[in-house]
Design brief:
This protein is α/β, with parallel strands linked by helices and 455 residues long. 40% of the residues lie in helices and 13% in strands. The chain has a 5-stranded parallel sheet with strand order 2-1-3-4-5, with helices on both faces. Strands 6-7-10 form a 3-stranded parallel sheet, covered by helices on one side. It has a 3-stranded parallel sheet with strand order 11-12-13, covered by helices on one side. α3 links the parallel β3 and β4. α11 packs across α14, α16 packs antiparallel against α18 and α17 packs parallel to α18. The C terminus is likely disordered. The structure holds iron/sulfur cluster. Iron/sulfur cluster binds next to loops.
């Protein structure tokens, strides 16, 4: 068979693990396999027996559909285009209806799911690292083993897709055997990235840590003179991070040490777990912080500030990575949580643009970017985009004036302003005399920056 593997051209640091396993599967079967990224004209001019498209993010709906459409004429029948991944799982019916392609829902973890009679469990295969050399695009992590020691998660958090994609919690997978096979075929990799959703929930956790150590990732592990790291990329569940498990984890070179702080109600627990990790020598913590779900902007600010204060107190790094919630079946990123509005979300995005997506653990940088209080944070988010992104350039050239105009608003005027600015599309607002003068003046900042690039 002639097999084409396509990773749509969206921004994704991860190599397409599913396609890499499919590549191994088809190469074992003796098929011809080619891998491309995005819409490749040369590949589209050929005919293929099957085209696989990775369909990861639901909000990349448009680009995935365009990609499928682009390769439609390369196969005899649209059903020979096969899409798999989170998006294909959550929106499989819609995808099939719009494209005629076949959606694979969930994992390819049983034999014969693609070719009846075949006895291979595709999910258990090693990924084909060599196929990444077919294209010029360089994925991050291409010098890392990317693997799982468990599958699924016993929890069912309302904002998480794991229970739909991997409904069964598998406590143990033979990680060492998997990594040994990769070593034999492709040579050793420098680091280990584990994509487990909730490794701490495994009743085989101690055995998993043993496998990691036996695979060459004990404390202070080195390869070719360089330090090796283990990254539990999806984060460790603070509710399950007991002292016993922390002691086991301290035997492997985890960096960064990833946690999640998704709800303000977990604040006390979060603080105690960061302190515990620090007691066991962890110096570099990265925390995922969900926002735009059921949280308020104030509690989002408080959660990221808590990490800054912990970093200060414990003299370690505790960076936050804000993650915007969007519903599991959303086909774009426009969802607005009930305590947020478009302007505030845009404001967070602008701050993160200026900080490259990371919330610094250094108090000075943090307060400069996010404000010294929750009120200041909200005030920053409400500013015109350029005032937030290019803070220095506009500080004395509009931003200070905006701030004093904003602070001078009466209660009613502020209500009007927030209603208008919160709905987004400020440029469409009629700045006519019906609006209070001070609100009009403030709104004029948005249109004048957009018009001239400066004031
Ligand atoms: S614990 Fe994590 S992986 Fe499990 S359901 Fe909740 S968010 Fe998802």
């Amino acid at each position: 068979m002639r097999i084409l593997l396509v990773d749509p051209d969206y921004r994704n640091g991860f190599p397409p693990l599913g396609l890499m396993k499919l590549s191994t599967y088809h190469k074992i079967r003796g098929d011809f396999v080619r891998f491309v990224r995005g819409r490749d004209r040369m590949a589209a001019e050929e005919t293929w027996d099957r085209v696989y498209v990775s369909a990861t993010f639901t909000f990349s709906w448009k680009v995935i559909l365009e990609t499928i459409d682009f390769y439609r004429d390369c196969v005899q029948h649209p059903g020979e285009i096969v899409a798999g991944g989170v998006m294909a799982t959550l929106l499989g019916d819609e995808l099939e209806e719009h494209t005629g392609a076949r959606a694979i829902r969930g994992l390819l973890d049983k034999p014969g799911m693609l070719d009846s009679g075949d006895r291979t469990c595709i999910d258990a295969l090693i990924p084909d690292y060599q196929m990444l050399e077919d294209i010029e695009h360089e994925y991050a992590l291409n010098d890392s083993y990317i693997a799982y020691a468990t599958r699924g998660c016993p929890n069912d958090c309302p904002f998480c897709a794991v229970s739909a994609i991997e409904p069964e919690f598998v406590h143990y997978l033979p990680l060492k055997r998997h990594l040994d096979t990769i070593d034999k075929v492709f040579g050793p990799k420098q680091h280990l990235v584990l994509l487990d959703n909730n490794v701490l929930a495994s009743d085989q956790f101690e055995r998993i840590v043993g496998d990691i150590i036996d695979s060459g990732f004990g404390r202070e592990a080195r390869l070719n003179g360089r330090v090796r790291h283990v990254d539990f990329n999806q984060g460790l569940d603070i509710r399950l991070l007991t002292e016993d498990k922390m002691a086991l984890l301290s035997d492997i070179p985890i960096s960064p040490f990833r946690l999640a702080f998704d709800m303000i109600s977990l604040e006390e627990l979060y603080i105690s777990r960061v302190v515990l990790a620090s007691d066991y020598g962890v110096r570099n913590i990265s925390t995922y912080v969900l926002y735009n779900f059921e949280d308020t902007p104030q509690d989002f600010y408080k959660r990221i500030r808590t990490s800054v204060e912990l970093a200060d107190r414990l003299d370690i790094q505790v960076n936050s990575f804000p993650m915007k919630y969007i519903p599991l079946n959303a086909t774009d990123r426009s969802y607005v949580g009930k305590h947020w509005n478009r302007r505030l979300l845009r404001g967070v995005q602008c701050i993160l643009l200026a900080t490259r997506g990371v919330v610094s653990a250094k108090r000075d940088f943090f307060e400069a970017a996010f404000g010294a209080t929750a009120d200041e944070f909200i005030e920053i988010c409400l500013m015109p985009d350029d005032y937030i992104i290019h803070r220095r350039r506009y500080e004395t050239n509009g931003a200070n004036e905006w701030r004093s105009d904003y602070r001078a608003l009466s209660r009613d005027e502020k209500g009007t302003f927030l209603r208008l600015v919160g709905a987004g599309k400020i440029k469409d607002i009629n700045l006519g005399p019906a609006l209070p003068r001070r609100v009009r003046d403030l709104l004029a900042h948005y249109t004048s920056v957009a018009r001239s690039g400066t004031r």
